[in-house]
Amino acid sequence: MDDTVFIGGPEKRAIVIEEYDPAWAARFEQVKASLAEALLLATDFRGCARHGFGRAAELLQARARTSRTGGDCYGYVLVATGRAEIMLDPVMNLWDCAPLLPILEEAGGTFTDWNGVRTIDGGNSIATNRLLFDEVMSLVKNEDADYPGN
Which of 46, 50, 96, 110 is the most buried (most CB within 10 A)? Predict the structure, then answer.
């Protein structure tokens, strides 16, 4: 047990690494805590608009350092591994969401619907690293506040 390294804090589950691996430590140190530093991914930003999330998606794109599309499941893998900070999907099926919630949460992230509800049956999804969840949901829920087009 002397070689066990715990990563995490009281607000999230600790990750236990039996043998210290500098590559894992480096990955956790690079997690972005600000939307201005974040990589934002979406299956299709235009799809967000077609399903009623256009303003929120545009606001997130305006605030994020970089945004990219075409991620699908791979986008969630990037969030879970710390290589991206946010993944948006305006339409999701139960079978798409079911494996993602435990994967993201066990990796220290969040997986919710666009209302911020932890669910696999919301019909849509937002995944974030835990550090950005509140900031992202604040913008999504108050999409008209500070909107660049207003």
Answer: 110
Residue range 77-127, pLDDT digits in tens? 999 998 999 999 999 999 999 999 999 999 999 999 999 999 999 999 999
pTM value?
Answer: 0.77
Q: C-alpha distances in angstroms, 71 versus 25, 61, 133?
A: 25, 15, 19
The span from the CA of 98 to the CA of 13, in Å, is: 20
Topology annotation, domain 32-141: D-Maltodextrin-Binding Protein; domain 2 (3.40.190)
**Which amino acid is present at 139?**
L
Annotated domain spans of the chain: 1-30, 32-141
CB 133 within 8 A of CB 86: no
